[in-house]
Write a structure and sequence with these properties.
single chain, alpha+beta, eleven-stranded mixed β-sheet, 6 helices, 15 strands, 15% helix, 28% strand, elongated
């Protein structure tokens, strides 16, 4: 088994350094020349400054400005963090033991770093605030969805917990607030083929073999709104939002379905009324039956209108 390379750089503000492998061949004379071609978001003088300051390192230490290009070599560096609007909501810890951390994530907070969301993510905040530098996600929850997210504390058990989600051995229950249609026959199971194109905000249902499945149950209704229990069997991108929209009852506060709406980065009003309510599974390490439940509530049901 190939030994995993350990980064020579520590985390910075809870964020891991970038690890990059140089190509096996190419026209570059130096590492610097390759980085200028590869990281076009950074100006050449910015790359020069990073190299001059010793901020780009290899297995043998900092890489000099004139260091030769070595095919297949690994290098590490810290990316420049984007300017982010702080998400003004706390992350509530639901459960913590030596292996697992389960939290109640607020709306608007991404689970893990991606794009313009890095420091303002659940993973980075928790690593920093709980002093858990090796914390890793067992799964992911959409940034606009609130509720339960499970993280792994012990690196050697990461694979076992991630496999639970990959193999669909975790029972997930969501709650949503959406419009009420008295003619819609519920409960029902929705199956469709969902396609999410890279760079396009909204996913779409397309012809073909279904790759998504959700059971939709109406719990109660009042004032034109319904409170729904959603039991997904699969985990496609935006699956629950797409399926309720396809039933003609888009989720309250949805900025993508049925119509894409712009939202300012500092606008934390009217959150998507979708909550990851329950996680239930057999613990692969201890053999225990686990059941965790979110303590959050959806505002649109408590304060309609």
């Amino acid at each position: 088994m190939r030994r995993k390379l350990t980064s020579p750089l520590p985390q910075r503000h809870g964020v891991d350094p970038v690890r990059m492998r140089l190509p096996l061949d190419g026209p570059w004379r130096t590492v610097r020349d390759h980085l200028v071609d590869r990281i076009q978001k950074l100006a050449p003088d910015r790359i020069d400054a990073m190299l001059a300051d010793g901020r780009v390192v290899g297995t043998d230490g900092p890489i000099a400005l004139d260091a030769p290009f070595v095919p297949g070599a690994f290098i590490w560096f810290h990316r420049d963090l984007p300017v982010e609007v702080p998400v003004p909501f706390p992350i509530d810890v639901v459960h913590r033991d030596e292996h697992l951390l389960v939290v109640d994530k607020p709306h608007f907070l991404a689970t893990t770093p991606r794009g313009g969301h890095v420091a303002e993510t659940a993973l980075v905040r928790l690593r920093r605030d709980l002093d858990l530098p090796e914390l890793s996600p067992a799964h992911r929850l959409d940034r606009l969805t609130a509720g339960l997210v499970m993280f792994v504390i012990t690196p050697r058990h990461r694979g076992a917990y991630q496999t639970l989600f990959h193999d669909r051995e975790v029972r997930k229950e969501y709650e949503a607030i959406a419009g009420f249609d008295p003619e819609l026959q519920l409960p029902r199971t929705v199956r469709s083929r969902i396609h999410k194109q890279r760079g396009v905000l909204a996913a779409e249902e397309v012809p073909g073999e279904p790759n998504s499945e959700t059971r939709v149950e109406l719990v109660e209704h009042r004032g034109g709104l319904g409170r729904y229990r959603l039991l997904p069997r699969t985990g496609r991108t935006h699956q629950l939002r797409v399926h309720l929209n396809s039933l003609g009852i888009p989720i309250v506060g949805d900025d993508l379905y049925p119509v894409v709406r712009e939202r300012a980065a500092d606008d934390f009003s009217n959150p998507l009324q979708l909550l990851a309510k329950v996680l239930e599974f057999t613990d692969p390490v201890t053999g225990q039956q686990r059941r965790f439940e979110s303590h959050r509530t959806l505002d649109a049901w408590l304060h309609p209108g």
